[in-house]
């Protein structure tokens, strides 16, 4: 085996996810992960700081990547359409996650520690998106609201895409989720004309 294996990160991630699913996140160890992957602990440390990092490595880049995509969106687009364009634009960032996305979701759902980490990650992305939307002219409250809705659209699109990646691409799933959202909100437009309760 060569001293440097370009597939080492993928092998470690696959081995970790298998063990997390089989034995539970809390019960799997880094030693077991490296043994299953046929690699050393030193190699593990080259890519990940700990076993939790297997699930979240690279996520620290998401806030900047997604907010930068909002800033790059066509200047004529209103804030929410700029946000949707940014989600479509960042789809390539997630291609490597597709093979293990369902396993990752299941592992995170099984652990309160991991669910909290996931919430923290998404909160950081939402704040970065809100800041970029404010720069495009949205009010502070509107930017916060739109960013949260954008995260919901992203999560729905990502789950659908990774469940059936062979059927369509991420961009199509974003458009699908956004269209469903718009359709469900259409009746809300009539609320402004409803009489208030006395």
Automatic annotation (TrEMBL):
Residues 29-48 bind DNA. GO terms for molecular function: DNA-binding transcription factor activity; transcription cis-regulatory region binding. Gene3D superfamilies: Tetracycline Repressor, domain 2. It comes from the Bacteria. Residues 6-66 form the HTH tetR-type domain. Keywords: DNA-binding, Transcription, Transcription regulation. This is TetR family transcriptional regulator.
